[in-house]
Amino acid sequence: MEGKNKEFSTQDSFSAYLKTAVRNTKIKYIKKHVKIQEAEIPIGDSAYAEAESGQGDYYRHLEEQVSRLCEDFGDVEQLLNLIENERLLAALMKLDDERKRLIFWRIINGMSFEEIAARLHIPMKKAVDTYYNTLKKLRKEMRHG
């Protein structure tokens, strides 16, 4: 029983690491695009003014933009290009498209397994199993590079 708890603990910590790495990457990505938009958007624009109203609001604004961007798989590919951890990037790039979508939808967008299963047209149990097997695969790949 203890071995199983240790395995779940390891999965949780790896998921947290992966989520943090991807979150930091997506924030860098959005900051870059916000800078571009600042040059293009008039100062009176409400979205820009809202983003300028405070740091907390600014990051909420970034998170909302990231969620919208991550709906499209092309944006997942753009986020992958910004990941600085070479081992993590290499491991993620080896995944097939379905696994990439599943990982990003679950970790970045916080989608439920039911939502993911519906989008991928697979049973929920398969979505859950694929997610955890993918985490194991990523962990193993990062360890052995």
UniProtKB/TrEMBL annotation:
One of the GO biological process terms: DNA-templated transcription initiation
Protein origin, superkingdom: Bacteria
One protein family per Pfam: Sigma70_r4_2
RNA polymerase sigma factor 70 region 4 type domain location: 86-124
Signal sequence, start to end: none
Molecular functions per Gene Ontology: DNA binding; sigma factor activity
NCBIfam families, per the entry: sigma70-ECF
Protein name: Sigma-70 family RNA polymerase sigma factor
